[in-house]
Amino acid sequence: xxxxxxxxxxxxxxxxxxxxxxxxxxxxxxxxxxxxxxxxxxxxxxxxxxxxxxxxxxxxxxxxxxxxxxxxxxxxxxxxxxxxxxxxxxxxxxxxxxxxxxxxxxxxxxxxxxxxxxxxxxxxxxxxxxxxxxxxxxxxxxxxxxxxxxxxxxxxxxxxxxxxxxxxxxxxxxxxxxxxxxxxxxxxxxxxxxxxxxxxxxxxxxxxxxxxxxxxxxxx
Length: 220
Hints:
Layout: H1 4-9, E1 12-17, H2 21-31, E2 37-42, H3 46-54, E3 60-63, H4 72-82, E4 88-92, H5 96-105, E5 110-113, H6 118-129, H7 137-148, H8 161-171, H9 176-183, H10 187-201, H11 206-215
Parallel strand pairs: 1-2, 1-3, 3-4, 4-5
């Protein structure tokens, strides 16, 4: 196993998955100051991502959870399935308190919000590329509360990540068929997820899901 010093001196070949050029440029300008970090690919094209990861062209990924024609958790799962050792840093405009723990549970090595400082981004990249995890103080406290059983459990926290994804889509007014098409899952599967969501959250209708998502500000 490589030491931290050896990892620091190794070239880190980075994949950036973010649909917005301005955010990509910002990320690049910050992390490229490290002479051992090289941006190899920036894309949201799944075929290109598969090829780069499968062929070993990248050894670090930075992704947004809001990717076009899909969802970021699915992208995170894809990267982890292609290479279970690939460290992934999630940088998202979505609130850390709601999405950070789920990202870590899905295999992310760290989570940052897009209002982070350049120093926070630099620190996160350096920690992760040297084999460690990056967890902010706020997220660490939330994680500790969950482990100790002291945190107030909100209804949506009872859901699996897939159920959470489906709930968000339904909560934004998408029909079961639209969710089915977007996630490339059968209508029956999405209906099953919907029923489990209603049961676990003790809700009675799609309208209540929509209201819940709006009240809890789970989407922007």
